[in-house]
Amino acid sequence: MNALTRTAVSATLHCLTGCAVGEVLGMVISTALGWHNTATIAISVALAFLFGYALTMRPVLAAGVPLRQAIGVALAADTVSIASMEVIDNAGLLAIPGAMDAGLGDWLFWASLAGSLAIAFVLTVPVNRWMIARGKGHAVVHQHHHH
């Protein structure tokens, strides 16, 4: 695996982490509040973006980049990646019969989420690779690692 592909895989794993945290937390909140599918997807996607951006901003802020600039870096680095992953992940969950109605204690929920996220990961790596090769996406973050 070449360096560009390794960087894309690393960036996509980073994205996957934020998306997974947001998806699970969104499901926990929506289940606790008795929300239906549309609200569940909305909160899960919003939280996926929130956690994805936060995971990117943490090392950028630690490198001494001011908050306003760190927010811009996170938006540039992660928006396309998270959006790609969320579209694929949620399409997968909607396509699997019963997945959206499965509770947190149901194996169908966890298996569907894991499968959808795995597919989203595989399909998002080329997106991140393409962006990084053009100096976009996570390439923007790497400019600030040695700030």
UniProtKB/TrEMBL annotation:
Transmembrane regions listed in the UniProt entry: 32-55, 67-87, 107-127
Swiss-Prot/TrEMBL keywords: Membrane, Transmembrane, Transmembrane helix
Coiled coil location: none
Lyase found in the keyword field: no
Domain of life of the native organism: Bacteria
InterPro entries xrefs: DUF4396 (IPR025509)
Pfam families documented for this protein: DUF4396 (PF14342)
Domain DUF4396: 6-137
Name this protein carries in UniProt: DUF4396 domain-containing protein
Species annotation: Actinoplanes cyaneus
